[in-house]
Amino acid sequence: MDIREIQNLIKFVSKAEVSEVKYKTKDFEITIKTPLAGNEVSYMPQPAVYQSAPQMAAPVAAPAASSAPAAEKAEASADDSKFVTIKSPMIGTFYRKPAPDKDAFVSVGDEISVGKVVCVIEAMKLFNQIEAEVSGKIVKILVDDATPVEYDQPLFLVDPS
Questions:
Q1: C-alpha–C-alpha distance, residues 17 and 7, integer Å
Q2: Which of 8, 51, 83, 122 could join 157 in a cystine, given CB atoms 3.0 to 4.6 angstroms apart?
Q3: Strands 117-123 and 111-112: what pairing?
Q4: Which ranges in the chain are annotated with CATH 2.40.50.100?
Q5: Is 90 exceeded by the pLDDT of residue 68?
Q6: Are 120 and 87 spatial neighbours (Cβ–Cβ below 8 Å)?
Q7: Which residue from 159, 103, 78, 90 is spatially nearest to 130, judged by alpha carbons?
């Protein structure tokens, strides 16, 4: 290998943005290290910093108006406490149907039993069937079809009675 080939190899390695390259033949060996070799590359996302605008003093009438929706929310959460929640066991995309041209696994009002498939969650091109852990009646579907879901996100409310 002549000096021109070595220079071309160095240029190639610097453009490829790699930290180290080893080139070896039966009678020649070279190792090229770039400045990236000393730096540890971190792929962790940095936390976002959000600043909120200063809050203005709210008019006196606003708290009275907002107490009514708060009371409705409290009643709804108290009403939901008697239901069992089926949660997502993984991160992925939630689907109510096994295929676009098929019927939904379950709908509001359907009776389910333990082990019945209630939805599919696609994660990394794998479609995972999610089975019910409880018997009862589907009261509410909390996620829209073909939307992303997080781990432990509520999917269905079931009335076990």
A1: 16
A2: 83
A3: unpaired
A4: 77-159
A5: no
A6: no
A7: 90
Residues 96-124 have pLDDT tens digits of: 999 989 999 999 999 999 999 999 999 88
Distance of CA 15 to the CA centre of its chain: 34
Contact predicate 97/103, CB 8 Å: yes
Angle at alpha carbon of residue 76, lines to 70 and 82, rounded to 5°: 145
Letter for the amino acid at 49?
V
Query: Which token pair is 57?
Result: 């003093």
pTM above 0.70, yes or no: no
pLDDT tier for residue 29 given thresholds of 50, 70 and 90: confident
Q: Which CATH number fits domain 77-159: 2.40.400.10, 1.10.10.60, 2.40.50.100, 2.60.120.10?
A: 2.40.50.100
Comparing CA positions, the residue from 88, 143, 80, 134 lying closest to residue 112 is 134
For residue 108, give the nearest of 148, 132, 142 by alpha carbon: 142
pLDDT of 71 higher than 50: no
Q: What is the rounded distance in angstroms from the CA atom of residue 14 to the CA atom of residue 57?
A: 57
